[in-house]
Amino acid sequence: MTRLTGSALRLTAIVGENDTWHHRPLYSEIVHRARRAGLAGASVFRGVEGFGASSLIHTARLLSLGEDLPVAVVIVDDEPRVRAFLPQLDELLAGGLVILDDCEVIRYAGRDRQTRPKGDASR
């Protein structure tokens, strides 16, 4: 298991929900590549509204034509590992936004299946 505490680097890639890589959602491809690269973790967050370089507003509001909502893929690991992953993002992204932030990891621990509260069905 990867141990991660203290100084780290947070990578956030913001792409469109409908963006694809070889007929697969782009955000999913990024997560799977991050896992194969051995990064500490990745999460995907779906936005409810936003705009980017095109200035076109995308929203989840009813009766809206813009349904290609923003999706943020967030990856946190130590700086060398995150920077080593950047060439893979260059290969995948034709557009979007990628940002890097210094951060501090306070806690990084997986859930132990035996210590999970009774009735908790989460993975």
Q: What does the model show?
A:
It contains 2 helices and 8 strands, in the order E-E-E-H-E-E-E-E-H-E. By secondary structure, the chain is α+β, with helices and mostly antiparallel strands. It has one domain (6-105): Alpha-Beta Plaits (2-Layer Sandwich), CATH 3.30.70. The strands form 3 sheets. A 4-stranded antiparallel sheet has the order 4-7-1-8. A two-stranded antiparallel sheet has the order 2-3. Strands 5-6 form a two-stranded antiparallel sheet. A hairpin with a 7-residue loop joins strand 5 and strand 6. Helix 1 runs antiparallel to helix 2. The longest helix has 14 residues, at 79-92. The chain is globular and about 40 Å long. The protein starts with 5 loop residues before the first strand and ends in an 18-residue tail after the last strand.
Short description:
With 123 residues, the chain is an alpha+beta fold. Helix content is 20%, strand content 33%.
